[in-house]
Amino acid sequence: EKVEFVEHFSQVIDRFEMSRNEKNTFSRELANQNFFVWIDKDKITQVLDNIISNAIKYSPEGGTITFKAETLKKQLLVSVSDQGMGIPTETVDKIFDRFYRVDKARSREIGGTGLGLAIAREIIESHHGQIWANSQEGKGTTIFFTLPLINQKRRKN
Ligand code: ATP
Ligand code: MG
Fold first, then answer.
1. Histidine kinase domain: which residues (predicted)?
2. pTM (predicted TM-score)
3. What are the phi and psi torsion angles at 124 (to 5°)?
4. Which of 62, 63, 109, 117 could crosslink 23 through cysteines, CB 3.0-4.6 Å?
C-alpha cells in the first residue's frame, strides 16, 4: 500500500508519547516534506514499535529519544536515537540475530525474547531496505533503516 511515511511515523510516535512514557523526552526531526513509500503498513508499524520500545526499555536513566526521517541517496532514511546504556562495539551487529540479547543478566529483568530486531531485519529486507545500528556503550544507540522511495514522476503539462 502507498503510505506517506512522515505522517505515519508521527502517528506511531504520538501513540508512544501518549502512553505511560514520562521518563523520556521525545524530539522529532522529521523533514517537512512528503515521503511516499510502498509498504506493508502493519509490518513497518511492527518494526517501529520494536525500535521505539527498545529505545525506551534500554534507557533506564531517561534522556531524549530523537526521531528522524530524511533522504539518503534517493532512499528514505529513518532513525531512532536514544541516550541509554548503549551496546558494546563488538556485539552491535549481533543484536539483529534471533534470540540475541546483550548481557543476559542486565536484560533479564527487562522483558523480551530477543526476537524484535531479527524480525525487524526480515521485514526491512523484504521491503528492499537495510537496517543497522550505531552505538556507544554508556552513551546511547541509534537504529537506522532505509526504505525505497516511490519515484515521484514529474508531470508533463
Ligand atoms: P523483544 O523485542 O523480542 O521483546 P528484545 O528487545 O530483548 O526482545 P531485540 O529488540 O531483538 O530484543 O533487541 C536485541 C537486544 O539488543 C536487546 O536485548 C538489547 O540487549 C539490545 N538492544 C536493542 N536495542 C537497544 C537499545 N536501544 N539500547 C541498548 N541495547 C539495545
Ligand atoms: Mg525489542
1. 1-151
2. 0.93
3. -65, -40
4. 62
